[in-house]
Amino acid sequence: MSDILLEARHLNKTYRQRTGTLGLQTNTIHALEDVSLQLKRGTTLAVVGESGSGKSTLARGLLRLLPLDSGEVIFDGQDFLALDKSALRAARRHMQMVFQDPFASLNPRMRVGEIIAEGLVIHRIGTPQAQTEQVIQMLKKVGLQAEDAQKYPHQFSGGQRQRIGIARALILQPKLLICDEPVSALDVSVQAQILLLLKQLQHEMGLSYLFITHDLRVVRHIADDVLVMQKGKVIEQGSVETIYNASQQKYTQQLLSAIPGHGLRAVGA
Ligand SMILES: Nc1ncnc2c1ncn2[C@@H]1O[C@H](COP(=O)(O)OP(=O)(O)OP(=O)(O)O)[C@@H](O)[C@H]1O
Q1: Is the confidence metric ipTM above 0.90 for this complex?
Q2: Which of 18, 185, 225, 232 could form a disulfide with 54 if both were Cys (CB 3.0 to 4.6 A apart)?
Q3: Which atom of ligand 1 is nearest to the CA of 53?
Q4: CA nearest neighbour of 176 among 102, 105, 77
Q5: Which residue minimizes the CA distance to atom 7 of ligand 1?
Q6: Residue 185 C-alpha to ligand 1 middle, in angstroms?
Q7: Cα–Cα distance for residue pair 58/31, rounded to 1 Å
C-alpha cells in the first residue's frame, strides 16, 4: 500500500464568464492551472491562498463535485476520475467534507442525531439500533453528549455546530477529510479548540486531511505540509517548517506577514 492517499496530477479547470452590457463577450478564468499535489496517509496538507486563488475549485474538483478540464486524481490507488457511478459511490464513503459555515451546512429541521446518522442511513450500514449507538459514540468523540442527539442545530453555539459537522463527516470512518475553511467563521479561542479536536481525531482514527484556508496562522497548528496557491497556480509547496522559516516566494511572505507576531521579517527579502 502506497503511503500516498491522494494524488492530483496536472489539474486544469477554466470557467467561462459572460461579460459586457449584453453579456455577449466571454471571459476565461483559469481557476486551476496545472495543479499537482500529494497527500500522505495520516497527515495534513494545507492549501493556502487568498480569496479567488482556486482553493474551493480544487476541493470540489478533487471530489468530482465539479468537472475538471484535464488531469488525474488518484485516491487510495484508484483512478478516481475514471470510476463509474457505483464505484464512485463506494469511494465517496471514504472522502468526506467539513464546511466553513456550520449553520448553513446543517439542516435546521433535522435533529442532530438524524444529521449525524445520515451517512449510515444512505449507505444502509447497521440496524437502527446500531446506528443510534454509533451516533452517540461519535457525539462523545467530538466533545458533545448523548442527549444532544435530540436537539436541533439552532440550540448550539458556532463551535458546537462545527463539532456536529465533524461528527457527521466522520460517522462513516472516512480515510480523507476535506476541510474547507472549517474554523474561519469561529472566534479565535473556539478556533483553537476545534483545531485541537481535529488533531486528536486524526491521531485516533488515522485520518488524512486536506485543509483549505486563507489563514496561515491556522496552518501552523494543523499542517504537516503546505501548498500555496495564487491565481489558480501552485506557487510554492513544502513542509510547514520550510514554508514558515524559509519561504522563497514574496506572495507567501506577504501572507505570513499578516500574522501577528510573525512580523515583516522576510517581506521583500
Ligand atoms: N462557477 C463559477 N463561474 C465562474 N467563475 C468562477 C466560478 N467559481 C469560481 N470562479 C472563479 O474562479 C476563481 C477561483 O475561485 P475559487 O472559489 O475556487 O477560489 P477560492 O480560493 O476558493 O476563493 P474563496 O476563498 O473566496 O472561496 C475565481 O476567480 C472565481 O471568481
Answers
A1: yes
A2: 232
A3: 21
A4: 77
A5: 15
A6: 19
A7: 8
Query: 0.95 exceeded by the pTM?
Result: no
| Local confidence pLDDT in tens for the 269 residues of the chain | 789 999 999 999 999 988 888 888 889 999 999 999 999 999 999 999 999 999 999 999 999 999 999 999 999 999 999 999 999 999 999 999 998 887 788 999 999 999 999 999 998 999 999 999 999 999 999 999 999 999 999 999 999 999 999 999 999 999 999 999 999 889 988 999 999 999 999 999 999 999 999 988 889 889 999 999 999 999 999 999 999 888 888 888 888 887 766 644 433 33
Cα 8 to averaged position of ligand 1 atoms, centre (Å)? 19
Angle at 154 between CA 148 and CA 160, to 5 degrees: 55
The answer to whether the CB of 167 falls within 8 A of the CB of 143 is no
Nearest to 199 by CA among 40, 5, 41, 44: 44
Specify the ligand 1 atom closest to the Cα of 229: 21
